Amino acid sequence: MTDIVSATELLDDSTPYGLRDLCDICAVRAEFVAEMVDAGILEPAGSAPSHWRFSIQAAIRLRKAQRLQRDLDVNLAGIALALDLLDNLDAMRERIQTLERHLAQLADAG
Amino acid sequence: MEFVDYYEVMGVAQDASGDDIKKAYRRLARKYHPDVSAAPDAEQKFKAVGEAYEVLKDPEKRQEYDKLKKYGAFEGDQFTPPRDWRSSAGFTEGGYTEVDPAHFSDLFEAIYGRTGAFHGRPAGPAPEFTLRGEDIHARVPITLGEAYCGTTRTFSVQIRRIDARGTPVPDSKTLKAAIPAGVVNGQKIRLKGQGQPGIGGGENGDLFLEVELEQDHRFAVDGRDLTLVLPIAPWEAILGASIDVPTLGGGVKLTIPANASGGQKLRMKGRGLPGRPPGDQYVILKIVVPPAKSEKDRELIRRMQEQMSFNPRSELAA
Question: Cβ A93–B38 below 8 Å, yes or no?
Fold first, then answer.
């Protein structure tokens, strides 16, 4: 049996999510999201919770925060720090990979 | 079944104190946490450590495990628990890790059963509570060409269907989903309602796909931007040239300015992955030195040497 799924939903930066959508996507309570915003882990556009707009990156971050809290017993400040460092690490790993590729391409037969 | 030595997994001695076990767990959990570690087997290791800790942290379960290890029958890798073995410690959900016991080993299941999630509930009429089904996460490797043009993928996902008696039965379903053009590496796609079925009329979970761009032999990818290293001949670099450059949408003429240098980066606006706005394609020039194949070739280069009086090391002079 094959289900043809036509309703694929691209989650990208150009689609803003409200508090409700974010709770829906990550299956969390609004209070948890508010705690994350308070701790500076999520930075939505808009001032009041009813006007908050999140990007899909926020959903990915929120899920990571959830897992770190659950698995490693890290407090909110610790999660914020870990996420920032992990972001830096990812960016650097990608950068290194790109540079290594360029270097290899420039070097071979050069 | 295969025997799993939980002490070995945790790297602790058989007589380690509860405190040592807790410390070992925290250290290993940090090391192998799939969100933290880049190691390809981090997730399996993390789960194995979670399983080991689930047993060793609980004095009652640990005692049972020790007995089992002592009295069970080993035959090579295969392990059989003593006859009439029954756990009294059981498995309680929650606690420090709240790990999903569905991922635990056969050994764990044989000793403690699987009372997490919906297992272990006595069979009977359908439950009265409703629960949203779990989300399923999967990675979809696609080629750069597919990211540019869009593609369709057929998946088989493992689900737990709840039968008429309320018992979960493993099942699989096949899905065909369209991956639209212009997805980037790490892009998430949600297929609403295609996750685990809900319980008692609860909503189905969602299926989340994460796009994983495969390495391309020509283009390096950064978001929607592409970089191509373009080999050119020394005379093309010196005189300038109009060169047919491969892009994902086919060959495009690119003008190389006269007196271009190796490593110089040129931008082809809007020739990257599609999107709003589309990415750019960068071209890094690589000057390839032609080998002289004959005396005539060498003669030509000698003439060039005399004619051009060029010192590439002028900046190194004191």
Answer: yes
